[in-house]
Design a protein that fits this description.
By secondary structure, the protein is of the alpha/beta class. It has 2 domains: 56 residues; 186 residues, Rossmann fold (3-Layer(aba) Sandwich). It is built from 8 helices and 7 strands. It has a 7-stranded mixed sheet with strand order 3-2-1-4-5-7-6, sandwiched between helices. Helix 1 runs antiparallel to helix 2. The structure holds S-adenosylmethionine. The site of S-adenosylmethionine has 22 residues, from helix 4.
Length: 264
C-alpha cells in the first residue's frame, strides 16, 4: 500500500464537517433574522426568536471550534490524554489477540500495538462518515507507525460483532458505546463486547458512563456488567481528571466520562 503522507492522521473528535454544519445554521438564522429586522415591520417576538437561535449557533460554533483546538495535538492534546487514561488501566499479559471497538482513525488500536509488541490487534468501526474517519485511514496510519503486520481493521457494528464467543484476550473501546444507534439499549453493545472476550480476558471501556439515561448509576452499571458473566469489574470516574479543562466538562463532552474495567 502507498501512503500519501508520512505523518499519521488521527483526526479530531470534533470534526471540521460538524463545525461547518453548525456554522451553516448560524448563517441561515443570522441572514433570516437580519432580513426580518430590516424589511418586516412588527413581528417582534418572531424576530427575537430567530435572533436568539442565531446567537445560539454563533456561541456553539465558537465553542466547538475552541474545543476542537483543545482536543488537538497542537492545542491541549486532550484527545491523547483521554486515550492514555484508558491505556493506564490495562492490566494485561501483553500478548494474544486484542479488539478495539469503534476504532475511528485507529488512534487507540495503533497506540496499543506500539505498546504491546507481542500482541495482534483488530479494530472494528461502522465508519458512518460522521467523523470523517475511514478504514483506509486506519490502515495507512498503521503502516506509517510500522504496526501494520499486527493490526487489521474491519467494518462491523459494535451491536453485532462478527466474531465467535471468547475470541479475544483483551477488549477495549473508547467513546463509542453511546454512539451505537442500531440497538436501543446501550448495554447491548457492552454485552456483545463481553461475549467475544475469553474467560480470564481483560476489558477496559471508556465512555459517557455517567449518563444515567444510558447506563443507570455507576453501581447499577457494575451490577449489569457482572451479570454479563464477568468475575471482576471496577468503575473509575475519569471525568474528574485534572487535565480536562472546565469548558470540556459539559455532559455531552467529557463531563460524564468514566471507565469500566475488569476480568471475565
Ligand atoms: C468519538 S468517536 C471515537 C473513535 C475512537 N474510539 C477514538 O477514541 O478515537 C466514536 C466512534 O464510534 C464509531 N461508531 C458509531 N457507531 C458505531 C457502531 N454501531 N459500531 C461501531 N462503531 C461505531 C464511529 O464511527 C466513531 O469512529
Amino acid at each position: 500500500m502507498k501512503v500519501k503522507t508520512d505523518t499519521p492522521q488521527y483526526g479530531n473528535w470534533i470534526s471540521i464537517e460538524f463545525i461547518e454544519k453548525v456554522f451553516i445554521l448560524l448563517l441561515i438564522f443570522g441572514t433570516v433574522g437580519t432580513l426580518l429586522w430590516i424589511f418586516l415591520p412588527g413581528w417582534i417576538p418572531l424576530k427575537i426568536l430567530i435572533t436568539s437561535i442565531a446567537i445560539f449557533f454563533l456561541v456553539s460554533t465558537i465553542y466547538f471550534y475552541y474545543s476542537r483546538r483543545l482536543f488537538s495535538e497542537n492545542g491541549g492534546n486532550i484527545q491523547n490524554k483521554v486515550l492514555n487514561k484508558l491505556i493506564e488501566k490495562i492490566d494485561w499479559e501483553e500478548r494474544g489477540n486484542a479488539l478495539d471497538i469503534g476504532c475511528g482513525s485507529g488512534a487507540l488500536t495503533i497506540k496499543l500495538a506500539k505498546k504491546f509488541e507481542e500482541a495482534n490487534f483488530t479494530g472494528i468501526d461502522y465508519w458512518t462518515g460522521a467523523w470523517g474517519y475511514k478504514k483506509s485511514q486506519c490502515e495507512e496510519n498503521a503502516l506509517i507507525e510500522k504496526v501494520d503486520k499486527r493490526t487489521k481493521f474491519l467494518k462491523a457494528s459494535a451491536s453485532k460483532l462478527p466474531f465467535e464467543d471468547k475470541t479475544f484476550d483483551l477488549v477495549v473501546s473508547n467513546l463509542t458505546f453511546h454512539e451505537v444507534k442500531d440497538s436501543k439499549n446501550k448495554l447491548a453493545a457492552l454485552t456483545e463486547a463481553i461475549r467475544v472476550l475469553k474467560k480470564e480476558g481483560r476489558f477496559v471501556f471508556q465512555d459517557l458512563f455517567l449518563i444515567r439515561a444510558y447506563y443507570g448509576t455507576p453501581d447499577e452499571l457494575i451490577t449489569a456488567v457482572k451479570n454479563m458473566g464477568v468475575k471482576e469489574v471496577h468503575f473509575i470516574d475519569t471525568s474528574k481528571s485534572t487535565f480536562i479543562p472546565k469548558s470540556l466538562k459539559l455532559p455531552f463532552m467529557l463531563g460524564t466520562i468514566g471507565i469500566i474495567c475488569g476480568v471475565k
